[in-house]
Every structure is written in C-alpha cells, then in structure tokens.
Amino acid sequence: MAQHVNYDRFVLEFEEHVPAYDIAYAHPPFIDIPGNMVGVCGNAFLAVNLHGASTVDWEESAGEDIVLSYEGPWRVTATTDNYTEAVFVTDFESDMEWIVGLADRVPFRVIELASPARLVIDVGHGDVTKAEIPTQMIDGKGTGFGWMADSRLAGHDTFDRFVIQFRGGYQPGDDYPEPGRPNYMIHYATGPFGGCDATDLIPVDGDAFIMVELRPATGTDWNVDPPRVIYTGENRLAADTVNITEAVLAGECEGIQWVIGVDAVTTFSVTWMTNPLRLVIDVPHVTVD
To answer: Is 216 strand, coil or helix?
Structure first.
C-alpha cells in the first residue's frame, strides 16, 4: 500500500500473470474458510476475489512439503489518506479473497501491469467532490454464456438503473453452450463508438460514457438454422432519468457492448440478480451546475 497525490494504491504482485478477478464493494461480516469472522478496520470495504490464484507453489510442493509462493503479511497496513488496511481472508481451491478497508467509499479503478505481473487498485482521497478521482472499472469472471433476452432503463428516487436480463435455461435446439453469467468489464470510456463495422459509428448522448462489455454473450441463437433472435428489445433506451441520458447497444461482435451516456461522472454499482438472471447497473443522481 502507498499514498499518492490524489489517490491511494494497493498492489498485488504475481509470479507469471494476473489471474481472473472481480472487485466490488462488500459488507461485513467477512468469513474465512474455517468459519471464523475476520475483522477489517474501515467504514467501507472492497472485496478483491482472485480466481486461479494461490499462496502455495504447487509445482514445487510434494506430499507434506508445502512450498509457499507468498511469504508476505496477511494484514497490510499503511499511513494513507483513505486505505486503512488490506486483510487476507481466504485461499481455498485456487480462489483467494482480500478485503480492503477504506475510510470513505469512493470511486476506484483497477489496472493490470506487467514485468512483473501486478493487479493495482486505486481509490481517491476523502471527499469525492474535492479530489481527482480515478476512473472506476469493475471486471468479473463469468459462469457461462450470456443469452441476452431483455433490457430496460428506469429512474428511482436517488439513482438511475440499467438492467440487462439473460435467458436462464435451455430451450429446444440449444445443445451448447451452457447459459449463465458472461465475463464482464464495466468502465468509463471515450467515444466514438462503433459496431462490428469500424466505420459504422454509433452516436450516444451524454457528457461521459460507461462501457458495458459482455463476453461471451449474444442476442441471437446461432446454433439453429436459420438463427433465432433472442433479444427483441430496443437498441436505444431512454427514460425519465436524472443522470443517465440513454443506453445504446453499440455492438454484438464477439460479445455484446452497451454504452451508457451520463450527464456527470460518478461512481456506479454493479449487481447480479437471479430468477431471472440480470445484470444491474445503478448510477446515482448528480446535480450538474
């Protein structure tokens, strides 16, 4: 952990490559594998889940002679403006979790660096209106193939909500792949935006843009002849919302891309809901002078 001019930085270093990961705000209690509660100092908490990661060097380990690849501290503290501490919670069957405590819940960004392989998480300092805030990115590993079935946009009391709904089960003619949650990457981006044809630019109304990338995902069942359209909703959504201007389906080429236009940059939350399976993105209301 280290403090920089406008943000704090937490770094995890790996021997060969950065594993799959998902990072999101979480709420206590935090439980380790034996079932013990793990205390973390802070007013807000980031859960850093690593898939395909371990503290043990399994290639060098044999029998009861376990060789650790990680010999660093399991509780990392530093004198920073926002980070309080990072606590190692679990390492089980190549799934690892760190919980990072913060003094204030603020936007964050995630960066992958090479030579050596590092996963970097930056958070802004204190009051989000007075600090230069890093751009937020949320990246997560999927559980299957995303068959997009519906989408909608609505305004609520204190936030705007964009929802992508996926088909939850098999239908006649579906031999593969298994339906589920696709891999996802959600982050701020700059235009112009285009579909599969790079010359086909798609305008999106807004002063800033949140890119929603889903792979593997599609709105068409290509496994039948002729292909069957699964998603029959609108490609451009608008509603009585405060911060979100519109949501536009920008492309379906080796995956799905939605672009959410907003009037003001702010943190956003990402939630997966089930029955039916839905990706939910909430953007808080921000007053623009």
So the answer is: coil
Please, what CATH class does the domain formed by 2-133 belong to? mainly beta
Please tell me whether residue 5 adopts helix, strand or coil conformation.
coil
Looking at residue 262, its pLDDT comes to 94
**Token representation of residue 13:** 């270093």
Separation of alpha carbons 197 and 253, rounded Å = 9
- Which residues contact residue 93 at a Cβ distance below 8 angstroms, ignoring those fewer than 6 apart? none
* Omega within 30 of 0 (cis) for the link into 227: no
Longest dimension (CA), the chain: 65
| Residue ranges for the chain with pLDDT beneath 70 | 62-64, 66-67, 126-136, 168-178, 195-199, 287-289
Tokens of 45: 């908490």
Instruction: Measure the CA–CA gap between 97 and 153, rounded to whole angstroms.
Output: 33
142-284 placed in CATH 2.60.40.3500 = yes
State the pLDDT at residue 272. 87
Which pLDDT belongs to residue 133?
41
Report whether 282 contacts 159 (CB < 8 A): yes
- Under a CB-based contact definition with an 8 Å cutoff, are residues 286 and 159 in contact? no
CA 125 to chain centre: 21
CB 98 within 8 A of CB 87: yes
Q: Hey, what are 287's tokens?
A: 């007053």
Q: What is the DSSP letter of 52?
A: S
Give residue limits of the domains in the chain: 2-133, 142-284
